[in-house]
Design brief:
The complex is a heterodimer of chains A (305) and B (217). The longest helix of chain A is centred in the middle third of the chain and has 32 residues. Chain A contains twelve helices and no strands. The relative contact order of chain A is 0.18. Chain A has 305 residues and is mostly helical. Chain B is an all-alpha fold. Chain B has one domain. Chain B is built from seven helices and no strands. Chain B is globular. Chain B starts with a helix and ends in a 15-residue tail after the last helix. Classes of the chains: A mainly alpha (305), B mainly alpha (217). At the A-B interface, helix 8 and helix 12 of A face helix 1 and helix 4 of B.
Chain lengths: 305, 217
């Protein structure tokens, strides 16, 4: 068991950047380009790690610490994410709250680091990031509460462990919850309907603008961290969406890995066929997702079916 | 069977949400069409043990009317009037969605207080019907463009239809009432279309239906 549990920790550490590569390839395919190599993100990471960092004289230790704290928070939260029917390495009652706040901590420090540069440009991105996360966080919590009530569990591993048993009679519920989680995934990871990861236009960017001043290993940490974050939400979505209950658990993990690949392609697909939403249209999107999650929660609270 | 039923009802509630949040008219019309099509399956699923010719006719009729005819009429009206989107509703889209959440809450609360007969198959039917009815009301009062208001009316009527179908075994007249309302909606929609075409003749710039009343210029 411990081997599988450690595997579900090793997979993201090794494979998370591959998801970004897969998304890029999908987008390139739809745009009729060949696109960058699948492993481009790894190359970028190595290149950045070899470089030195440049720090502005106006910045303080917060700017240097931000990326490290962010990456540490993401790795710590990975410990609590179950993968492919295998319980997470660490699970206790209420761990999803810690998970949400670890992610919030990471965001807090990235935002602080952005503000620390003193650039008004980065301040703008920081303000947007914080605004939209205010909308995204409740959605995540409501979805988690619905799962908690449904499975009578208190930790992420328990929610997702009882999912195969509850799956068949509750398909509409899990569907609703996965819509909410998917929208949160797109919003939290700065993917397209909310933010465009490729853009470098001041009018549009949110996440990218905050990390403009980071360089070298710091940027590598941030890039790697965002890949891990994508994996975290992806793994939760897989847990909600696919009922995996295969006895040799390694098979379940392989299924979940395949699921992650499909998810990356799906994200690439969304990014290819959708335009970025106007900033003013993002809150309605997230509130709509909140509506889905709340609807699911109400259904569960009524003891339905 | 109840899973399918619940799925349908949840789909209808989701389309309601999309309607509350979308500003594009064509998209909204398609949402209502989808709702109408989903509605057609409802009688068959609800009374699966007694499928008769009347039931199938009812389903097919409502599907044809609400899923095909109305949307086409409305899309045509929107095209003729050259209206693409609801620009400034009385209540903004974010607020509309929040209201939608409140409406869901209210309909669940109301349905838990209503004494109901045994014939209700799924626990979701009454809240779903209430949600659609109230959402329809809300759309009618909060939107400025006449076509959006007609959509609101259709959603409201769909809600009434769901409620009626759920009760059909006990009170067949409710269905008749639903059909009557349908006819009324048809007339309503036609009226708007014709009105609009009239409008086209004496005014080229009719981007806004909302200020029909007080623009004589």
């Amino acid at each position: 068991m411990i081997i599988e549990q450690s595997l579900s920790m090793i997979f993201p550490l090794l494979l998370a950047p591959l998801m970004l590569g897969l998304i890029n390839r999908t987008k390139a395919f739809f745009a009729g380009r060949v696109g960058q190599p699948l492993l481009q993100v790894y190359f970028d990471l190595f290149k950045l790690l070899k470089k030195g960092a440049v720090y502005s004289r106006t910045t303080s230790w917060i700017f240097q610490g931000g990326p490290m704290i962010g990456l540490a928070a993401f790795i710590a939260s990975l410990l609590m994410v179950p993968f492919g029917g295998v319980p997470a390495l660490i699970s206790f009652a209420g761990d999803f709250i810690l998970l949400a706040y670890l992610l919030a901590l990471a965001r807090f420090f990235v935002v602080l680091a952005a503000l620390d540069t003193g650039s008004s440009f980065e301040g703008m991105g920081a303000s947007r990031e914080v605004t939209f996360s205010t909308f995204a966080e409740p959605v995540f919590f409501i979805a988690m509460f619905a799962l908690a009530r449904l499975s009578n569990g208190a930790s992420l591993s328990e929610f997702l462990a009882s999912q195969p048993r509850l799956w068949a009679p509750n398909i509409p519920l899990f569907f609703l919850i996965s819509i909410a989680v998917f929208v949160v995934l797109l919003a939290e990871n700065a993917r397209i309907p909310v933010d465009d990861p490729n853009t470098h236009l001041e009018l549009t960017m949110i996440h990218e603008v905050m990390v403009l001043d980071h360089s070298g290993p710091d940027l590598a940490f941030i890039l790697y961290g965002s890949a891990l974050k994508l994996w975290i939400f992806g793994a939760i979505l897989m847990g909600v969406l696919i009922p995996i209950k295969v006895e040799p658990t390694i098979l379940g993990q392989v299924t979940a890995l395949a699921g992650m690949a499909v998810l990356s392609i799906a994200i690439g697909l969304v990014e290819s066929i959708m335009a970025r939403l106007k900033l003013g249209r993002i809150p309605p999107l997230l509130i709509g997702a909140a509506g889905c999650a709340l609807f699911a929660l109400l259904l569960v609270l009524r003891g339905h079916p | 069977m109840t899973t399918w039923l619940d799925g349908l009802l949840i789909l209808m509630v989701l389309t309601g949400f999309l309607l509350l949040g979308s500003s594009r008219l064509a998209e909204s019309i398609r949402m209502v069409a989808m709702q109408g099509l989903a509605l057609g399956f409802l009688p068959i699923l609800l009374h699966s043990d007694e499928i008769g010719i009347r039931l199938i006719l009812l389903s097919l009729g409502s599907m044809a009317l609400k899923g095909l005819l109305f949307p086409r009429l409305l899309l045509r009206a929107a095209r003729e009037a050259r209206i693409k989107r609801e620009i400034e509703p009385f209540v903004g889209f974010t607020m509309s969605l929040l209201t939608g959440i409140a409406i869901i809450w209210i309909s669940f609360w109301l349905s838990s207080r209503l004494p109901l007969t045994e014939s209700i198959r799924s626990t979701l039917i009454v809240p779903g019907a209430l949600f659609m009815t109230l959402t329809g009301f809300f759309l009618i009062v909060s939107r400025k463009i006449a076509i959006s208001q007609v959509l609101g009316y259709l959603v409201m009527e769909n809600g009434v239809f769901v409620f009626g179908v759920a009760m059909a075994k006990d009170q067949p007249w409710l269905i008749e009432l639903g059909v009557l309302l349908d006819v009324f909606v048809a007339v309503f929609v036609m009226g708007i279309t014709i009105f609009h075409i009239n409008r086209e003749f004496d005014h080229i710039d009719s981007d806004r239906l909302a200020n029909l009343k007080d623009s004589d210029s």
